[in-house]
Write a structure and sequence with these properties.
α6 packs antiparallel against α11 and α12 packs parallel to α15. The protein folds into two domains: 160 residues, Leucine Aminopeptidase, subunit E, domain 1 (3-Layer(aba) Sandwich); 321 residues, Zn peptidases (Aminopeptidase), CATH 3.40.630.10. Helix content is 35%, strand content 21%. The chain has 505 residues and is α/β, with parallel strands linked by helices. The protein is built from 16 helices and 20 strands. The longest helix is centred in the middle third of the chain and has 26 residues. The strands form four sheets. Strands 7, 8, 9, 10, 11, 14, 15, 16 and 18 form a nine-stranded mixed sheet that branches. β15, α14 and β16 form a beta-alpha-beta unit.
Length: 505
């Protein structure tokens, strides 16, 4: 779907449908909605007066006016209570618009920018979130459906105010670019596991710089380490987890050189388990089909690089994604094994289903040794305990550096992608001490998310580091908060905000 911005009066725009909005509790339309309402004979005001439309967030009212507009349809979308409105509500309001447009098989939609002005959000920010919402709402993975979903061809954001238009246009461009990168990563997560094994993920990473512009693409470089290189690096965690599968492991290294020559690096490490059976510690069959999403952290880091390139961020970034299949077989690693990691630390295996932290540990060691980053972030669908603790609302966040955590919290608030800090107190380390090695890969029944994070901290090498556990947020079970069911792309929105805000300052 093409997302554009034009300067015009929405009443004069020729599209299959025009979109305006209304806050919950409003007695009459205001702004562009008032102008459209006057043009069509007060139909919006009548619907409000008669109780047919309340303006709740995501509620829609579809009208077919016989006169007054250049477009044959009007859709009014609710923005919820004005006093609770945020920029992210603007994003969420776009999903029901796209649903209606798809249902009616429309080609072109023209919409006001939700929340600018009356909603208290500056026009540029509102435009960013609206365009992001349009891009994310347009995502479809229908490769295996004979009857393909209808796709809206063009989504226009309309701004009448000439002074506001430049910032709105820039915001729409920003949101569309970031949304495209997120959708690229979501497509990877949605791909069936037989078609996305470690080598396939590596091949996809080689295309991360395509479509972002020639100048940006030249700043993106890919290196893929295979079995010989990983063996030479003594990547004991990656090699052990991969032993159960005939698919050889890969360590994907995707660079974006947007900063000045010699500038420091930010490392983005993402879990890339393309399918997780649990290995010898086999999972239950219920829900195992979703274990294709166990590479969502890796896909998110690759997508973040793609977004950074598309935006032209002036930073040096490197995504390091260890990719394996975790399978049971006669060659698989076992509970009771002791692994020597790339760092030299030894890890006693209690559960082969706690494999993500093993491959991440080696990837973090590689990033620290190779790039000496000034900061490092990792993302992984790491623990079921995170779902128990935080559900599907918040990303679990923990880290070693208070200043970095504070900036991440600010980015979370600004992006609308919620994250909640969990503690990494030293007492939790006692749970992962091993009697026959230095560490255990499982800390027992208590504080499973925290002990997994504490395990990873041992491999950060003193680098300021933040860990995101996205087990509860990487996959959406049912439509909510502006996402259709399927992969969400978490935590790309948060990371792009973090990186771009640092870029601005």
């Amino acid at each position: 779907m093409r997302i554009d911005c034009i300067s015009a009066d929405i009443r004069a725009v020729k599209a299959d449908m025009v979109v305006v909005n209304l806050f919950e509790g409003a007695k009459r339309p205001g702004g562009a909605a008032a102008a459209v309402d006057a043009a069509i004979g007060g139909a919006i005001a009548a619907a409000v007066r008669d109780g047919d439309f309340a303006g709740k967030l995501g509620e829609t009212l579809s009208l077919r006016p016989s006169r007054g507009l250049s477009s044959p349809r009007v859709l009014v979308v609710g923005l919820g209570k004005k006093e609770k409105f945020t920029a992210d509500h603007a994003r969420q309001a776009v999903l029901p618009v796209l649903k209606e447009a798809k249902r009616m098989k429309l080609s072109t939609v023209a919409s006001v920018v939700h929340g600018a002005g009356a909603g208290g959000v500056d026009p540029g920010t509102a435009a960013r979130f609206c365009a992001l919402g349009a891009a994310l709402s347009a995502f479809e993975y229908d490769r295996y459906k004979e009857e393909k979903a209808h796709r809206v061809a063009r989504f226009l954001f309309v701004e009448r105010d000439a002074k506001a238009f430049p910032s709105v246009r820039a915001g729409v461009s920003w949101g569309a670019r970031v949304g495209e990168a997120i959708n690229w990563g979501r497509s990877l997560v949605a791909t069936p596991p037989a078609e996305l094994r470690p080598d396939d993920l590596a091949r996809a990473a080689r295309g991360a710089g395509r479509g972002v512009g020639a100048a940006a693409a030249r700043k993106v470089r890919v290196r893929v380490l295979g079995l010989p290189e990983l063996t030479a690096l003594k990547a004991g965690g990656i090699l052990a987890v991969a032993k159960g599968s005939p698919a050889p492991p890969r360590l994907i290294v995707l660079e974006y050189r947007g900063g000045r020559p010699g500038a420091t690096w930010t490392a983005l490490v993402g879990k890339g388990v393309t399918f997780d059976t649990g290995g010898i510690s086999l999972k239950k069959w219920e829900g195992m089909e979703k274990m294709k999403y166990d590479m969502a952290g890796g896909a998110a880091m690759l997508a973040t690089i793609r977004a950074a390139a598309a935006l032209g961020l002036k930073r040096n970034l490197v995504a390091v994604v260890p990719s394996v299949e975790n399978m049971p077989s006669g060659t698989a690693y076992r509970p009771g094994d002791v692994l020597r990691m790339m760092s030299g630390k030894t890890v006693e295996i209690l559960s082969t289903d706690a494999e993500g932290r093993l491959i991440l540990a080696d990837a973090m060691t590689y990033a620290v040794r190779k790039y000496k980053p000034k900061e490092m972030v990792d993302a992984a669908t790491l623990t079921g305990a995170c779902i128990v603790a935080l559900g599907s609302v918040n990303i679990g966040m923990m880290g070693s550096d208070e200043a970095m955590l504070s900036r991440m919290k600010a980015a979370s608030a600004a992006s609308g992608e919620k994250a909640w800090e969990l503690p990494l107190h030293e007492e939790y380390f006692d749970q992962i001490k091993s009697e026959i090695g230095e560490l255990k890969n499982v800390g027992g029944g208590e504080a499973g998310t925290i002990t997994a994070g504490r395990f990873l901290q041992e491999f950060a090498g003193g680098t300021p580091w933040v860990h995101f556990d996205i087990a509860g947020t990487a996959w959406v079970e049912k439509e909510k908060r502006g996402y259709a069911p399927g992969p969400s792309g978490a935590p790309v929105r948060l990371l792009v905000e973090y990186l771009s805000s640092r870029d601005r300052h």
